[in-house]
Amino acid sequence: MAQRTPWKLLILLAVWGAMADRGDTFTEEQETQIEIVSIFFSSISICGSSFIVFMYLRHPQLRSFVFQLVVWISASDIVFSIGNAIGNPRDGTSQCYAQAILIQFFGLSSMLWTAAIAYTVDRVYLKNKSLENVTELKRNFHLSIWGISSLLTVLPATTGNYGAATGWCWIDVNQNASAGTAWRFLTFYVPLWGVATYNLTVYARVRSALDKAIAQGTENVGSIQHLQRMVYYPLVLVVCYIFGTISRIQQIFGPPVFMLVVLHTIGMSSQGTLNALVYGLTPAVKKVLCNDGRKVLEAPSVEDVNRGDDGLVSVELDGKTPNNRQEKV
After folding, report:
1. Phi, psi (5° rounding) for residue 316?
2. Would you list the DSSP string of 61-116?
3. Is pLDDT of 126 > 90?
4. Residue 170: enclosing H or E segment and its boundaries?
5. Whether the Cβ atoms of residue 274 and residue 237 lie closer than 8 Å to each other
6. DSSP secondary structure, 266-300, as one string
7. Contact call for residues 113 and 145 (beta carbons, < 8 A)
8. How many of the other CB atoms lie within 10 Å of CB of 151?
9. Phi and psi at residue 168, in whole multiples of 5°?
10. Is 129 left (phi over 0), alpha (psi -120 to 50) or beta?
11. How far apart are CA 117 and CA 243, in angstroms?
């Protein structure tokens, strides 16, 4: 019986969502304000995410294995932000449908890439297990992430639930409200908080490992501190979607609240920006961007970067664990 509880809760939420009043609660001016906020913060995110991709392409010395995963987060964030920057297209148009698909698919892929980072941290640096075939691991990441994102994007389309969704186009609850409410949680918010819980669990383990290393005075304290910085990426996910989750739950029980929707818009439109800020604060990037980094630009030290100077500890291509790995380009 306990295993059926989540499904009962989901059905109950769908019923409540179908019973809620879905009247036009926002004025035209409020809709315009939401649209402006979305376009503004999404444009900044596009710039921030593009910065990460540019740094990866421009500076080979920053290309650790985990940073490759960060680049895929950024690529997803770019297209996700482009979808947000479309604004608030009219319901039923091809532009509205395209926006809904972009937000759903690339919002999912972005969050799943953060889980890939957390998995890498957990397996290699906390459980001290080697990655025997990095090429196969990357292939599995791509197959899993793009496959799951595709499946969860197709499902709402089977009931015709892509359309206007309060300020932008996404999963519509104005028509076929029960299915729309169920799809919102089943295909997005349940996976979102499942990933967030996993990421936060790994983060807690990193903190515990750091505290233990400091207490024992071990030599790998610095590496674990850099590792802790790397896990800030998954934490961005929590920050960006906390208000969105509150807003969507609130909308089950009644008309949307304007300020909650605005905070939701700011959060989800800022994911690329926050990722760029977290990455931009790492020591190696500062060296590259500042004149003091001339040595890094002229003669980059792959060993220094791979050992954590960029805050993104890499996984070597030979699958060795951190305790016995050899530095390779």
Report:
1. -70, 155
2. GG--HHHHHHHHHHHHHHHHHHHHHT--PPTTSHHHHHHHHHHHHHHHHHHHHHHH
3. no
4. strand 169-171
5. no
6. HHHHTHHHHHHHHHHTSHHHHHHHSGGGHHHHHS-
7. yes
8. 11
9. -160, 180
10. beta
11. 24
Structure tokens at 287: 């060296």
- Tell me the two tokens of residue 105: 């698919």
Please report the sign of the dihedral spanned by the C-alpha atoms of residue 45, residue 48, residue 53, residue 56: negative
Q: What is the pLDDT of residues 269-300, one digit of tens each?
A: 998 899 888 876 667 677 777 744 454 444 33
Q: What is the per-residue pLDDT across 161-176, written as a single tens digit (0 to 9) for each?
A: 999 888 889 999 888 8
105 contacts 150 by C-beta, under 8 angstroms: yes
Degrees, nearest 5: CA angle 45-50-56: 135
Distance between CA 276 and CA 71 in Å, rounded?
10
Backbone angles phi, psi at 170, to 5 degrees: -160, -130
Report how far residue 40's alpha carbon sits from residue 269's, in angstroms, rounded to the nearest whole number: 9
Q: Which residue has the higher pLDDT, 41 or 213?
A: 41
**Pure H helices in the chain:** 5-19, 28-58, 65-85, 94-120, 134-157, 177-184, 190-216, 221-230, 232-253, 258-269, 271-280, 283-289, 294-298, 302-304
Global pTM?
0.79
Amino acid at 234: P
In degrees, to the nearest 5, what angle opens at C-alpha 232 toward C-alphas 230 and 234? 100
Q: How far apart are CA 81 and CA 103, in angstroms?
A: 8
Residue 14 in contact with residue 178, Cβ under 8 Å?
yes
Q: pLDDT tens digits for 234-250?
A: 678 888 999 999 998 88
- Please give the Cα distance from 233 to 224 (Å, whole number): 15
Closest CA to 83 of 162, 10, 138: 162
**Cα–Cα distances in Å, from 63 out to 116, 208, 232, 244, 275?**
16, 28, 18, 33, 16
Buried b or exposed e, range 216-247, using 16+ CB within 10 angstroms: eeeeeeebbebbbbbbbbbbbbbebbebbbeb
